[in-house]
Amino acid sequence: MPPLANTTPTSNVVDNFTGSLSEAVDNVLRWRPNPGKQERALRIPDAVFEILYGGARGGGKTDAGIYWTIKPVARMGNLQTIRHPLFRCLVLRRSAKDLNDWLDRAERVYKAFGGRLTDRQKAPTFVFPSGAKIIVGHMKDVSSYLGHEYQRMLI
Fold first, then answer.
1. For 90, phi and psi rounded to 5 degrees?
2. Quick check: 148 and 102 in contact, CB under 8 A?
3. Angle at the Cα of 14 from the Cα atoms of 11 and 17, rounded to 5 degrees
4. Which of 9, 29, 57, 84 has a C-alpha 20 to 30 A away from that of 77?
5. Of the candidates 86, 94, 132, 139, which has an alpha carbon nearest to the alpha carbon of residue 110?
C-alpha cells in the first residue's frame, strides 16, 4: 500500500481521531475486547499475514473481525486502515443470515468512523470519507472477488 498522502477525510469523527483504536473505541463506542482470544487477536502485529481465530458461537469472532478490519497499521504511519484512500478489505460470510447479521453489527461500528453502507442487497460496501472501502459478500460468490487487490481479508 502506498504511503499516506494528503488525505483529508470529511467526517469529524475521523478528522479528530489521532490516537489508537482503543482510544477511539473508548471515546466513540465504549467497546472493549474480551480478555483472551479477542484481545490477543487485536494485539497481533501488522507483520503477521493471517490470523486463525475459531471457536464456538458467542466467542467474539464477529466483533474481533469488525475491529480488526479498521485496526491501525504501522506501515501506514500507525493510522487506521480506513484513513487511506486506496485501502480495500474483503469480508466474506458463509450464508445470507451470517452476512446480514455481520452487516448490522459492522454498520453500528463503522458509522462511528464515518463509514456509509451502500448497496446492501446486491454488493454491500462500506465507504469511508477517505475513499477506503470494506467490501462484503457471500462465500458462494468467491470467484467474483478473484484478481482484485485487498489489504485485509476476513473470512
1. -115, 130
2. no
3. 145
4. 29
5. 132
